[in-house]
Amino acid sequence: MDVVYFAWVRERIGVPREEVETKAATVADLVAELVAREERYAAAFADLSALRVALDQELSDFDAPLAGVREVAFFPPMTGG
Asked: Which candidate, 31, 27, 33, places its Cα nearest to that of 9?
């Protein structure tokens, strides 16, 4: 699946997107797999309360299932203005 990173998440990980092979059942499982890869992922996902996630461009939760999902995007909360 495609995993996309925005704003400071992208800066900490060092890439805007990547193709990820995963057996994760939920977003939280995917995050755990990524964090186990390298320190840069651990830094990006250190505080999940500071992150939002979208599955196939729909806002979602970290406990959402990944079955059938093609794209997961991680980004900080946005403010209007």
From this structure: 31
Burial class (CB in 10 A: 0-12, 13-18, 19+), 10: middle
Q: For strand 71-75 and strand 17-19, is the pairing parallel, antiparallel, or unpaired?
A: unpaired
Nearest Cα to 24, choosing from 16, 11, 33, 15?
A: 33
Q: Model confidence at 73, in pLDDT bands (50, 70, 90)? A: very high
User: Three-class SS of residue 36?
Assistant: helix
Look at the pTM and tell me if it is higher than 0.90: yes
Per-residue model confidence as pLDDT tens digits over 7-32 = 999 999 999 999 999 999 999 999 99
4: which 2 tokens? Answer: 């996309």
* Helix, strand, or coil (residue 70): coil
